[in-house]
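Researcher: Next sequence.
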Amino acid sequence: MTFMARTGYVRAMNVRQSDSESEITLGLLTAVEANSQLTQRTVARDLGIALGMANAYLKRCVRKGLIKVTQIPANRYAYYLTPKGFAEKSRLTAEYLSISFNFFRDARSECDALLAECESHKWRRVALAGASDLAEIAVLCARERLVELTGIVDPASNVATFAGLTVVGRLKELGPVGAVIVTNFRDPQSAYDVLIETMPAERVLTPPLLGVSRARPKLME
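Model: Next structure:
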């Protein structure tokens, strides 16, 4: 799994543009360190960005003195980290670890609070909506609560199980549930909007970190 794939949840949060740029830069520096003969196409694929963006970030890192480029046979190029590049990679890695810790701490606290709410309302059977890192954290929290996670609803997923739970395309495939916790990172608002069409909104719970708007916009008169 690529570095960027492991940190996919960072993009899913409402981070600032500068945070996304730092993430891409760190992924690029990590990739260059691992393979000096990579191509722009492989960089784009591994980082999950457009080819033009990969080219732009490579050029930017070269201009900043983070990466050195040399031509090798067959009209190809080799990329190497400079001392400045190693230093920047170390700084960004420390920054990423801080973000990771804060995310896990906040996500665990919010998931536990939502599961506690389910427990207090005696919603014993609870589903998750979205196969993601947040779903994995919810699974960990559920072990300490008197609730049963029945499965994960994720129409876009191509796996049958995730974090030990069955993944289905429609909520009704999981049978009766007392509540659903949204754990979808790709489009949490849409996941919430779809769920409240089939069950009461107060039973569709959303971690605050997802930034889901629970109030429908008022129509202008």
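Model: The CA atoms of residues 10 and 99 lie 8 Å apart. The chain has a mean pLDDT of 86.
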